Amino acid sequence: MGEQTTEKTSLSIKQFMIIFFLGLGYTVVYATPFIQYVFYDSLVDALQCTNQQLGYLITIFGVGNLLAPFGGALSDKFNTKKIYIFAMLMICALNVVFAMNMSYSFSLIIWGGFAVFGLFLYFPAHTKLTRLIGNENQQGTIFGFTEAFCGITNVIVNFIALYLFAFFSNKYFGTAGLRAAIIGYAVLGVVAVIFLAILVPDPGKAAATDKSSDVINTKMGVKDWIGIVTDVRTWMCGIAVFTTYTMYCTLSYYTPYFSNVLGVSVVFTGGLSIFRQYGTRFIGAPIGGWLGDKLKSVSTVVGASLAVAVIMVVAFMAMPAGSNGTVLIVLTLAAGILTYMARGCMFAVPSELKIPRKYAGTTSGVVCAIGYCPDLFIFVLYGYWLDKFGNTGYRNIFVYAAVVMVIGVINAIVTQIYKKKKLSGETAEA
């Protein structure tokens, strides 16, 4: 994409600007589909629905993960940037339409639209576009900072949404505040699209001037698609995401575990969870990505992070009620940093395994379907254990997470063995 060299590992100011707006776009695209995390009660009141009915919206949206491999094929065959911009604009349009007609029956259609444009089209294009903004020696750093900027823009976007919600709720009452917040998401999405349209070089033009045009788009056939789906490297990438995402999902259960089992105050655990969610993201993701590039192995960072996380989960399980608060703080923040170190690297694994960038969209789509499939069952499973066994259910949760993370460690080792046997001496197809 313009200024790539095989030696360069540091990022330019322009690359940082692109990464920031990619992070802003990512935040906006998923803001409304997951809006209950910020405006749960207000959304229930506005839609006049039950908690269970609200849960169906996420289920509808989650099905989009299964469509991502097909959307990835489109990103590989056609202009990635145009698909990205089209998907974002459609998400913004859906936000406005939903804000104008806020009913539960209509929301089912809207969330179906979010699944199509946010997961089928947007996510593979986002991942491929992120990979294309730098050379193969920068991938860990690029994905690490993208993850960090997603965290930063998440804070910015939701503070703006909260301000709009409070202002319009006080002035007009009813659902005006929620409608304003959702329209605010749409406006910020358009801002991100404008900057990205200007800053990101057009992949089609790059392909026309670059002899190695395979880095951009290719004529994807059924044989190519099947080849990617059955490629062992794709599955190693998918397992890296699956195990890391399981660690990420489990992280949110530390908060109720501390208050319900270890007897720590709700205020303490709430404050700690906020810093764990946002503060550790800013630290862990860039460090993990940078370290992956320095070691020339992002999979090693993923594996090492998971290995240490397993030890920490065991430590949490062994801690008695009334444990020292300082120890809890250190362990929690360390767990958060490790999680985001792995998240900052997990989508750079295809680059390490030398999967051609012309297949980046399809690969990311398949990896998304594999890696994010815990959305389909993990929260239901964890909830079932807690409902049936009470606080004892946390032990089941932590044991399951530890086992999955051990699989991730093994996957990282297998990745290294594969590299030495199959890829040693090769150059990345970039």
Q: How many helix segments?
A: 19
> What is the multimeric organization of the chains shown?
single chain
The amount of helix comes to over 70%
Low-confidence stretches: 1-6, 207-214
Pairing-aware structural class of the strands and helices? mainly alpha
Question: Rounded to an integer, what's the Rg over CA atoms?
Answer: 21 Å
Q: What order do the SSEs take from the amino end to the carboxyl end, as H and E?
A: HHHHHHHHHHHHHHHHHHH
Cα distance, first to last residue? 10 Å
Structural overview:
This protein is mainly α. Helix content is 79%, strand content 0%. It is built from 19 helices and no strands. The chain has helices at 13-31, 36-47, 51-62, 64-77, 80-100, 104-132, 139-172, 176-199, 203-209, 222-230, 232-251, 254-260, 266-295, 298-318, 325-346, 349-352, 360-371, 378-389, 393-423. Helix 5 packs antiparallel against helix 6. The longest helix has 34 residues, at 139-172. The N and C termini lie close together (10 Å). The relative contact order is 0.14. Residues 1-6 and 207-214 have low confidence and may be disordered.
Summarize the structure.
The chain has 430 residues and is mainly α.
What descriptors fit this protein?
430 residues; mainly alpha; 19 helices; 79% helix; globular; disordered N terminus
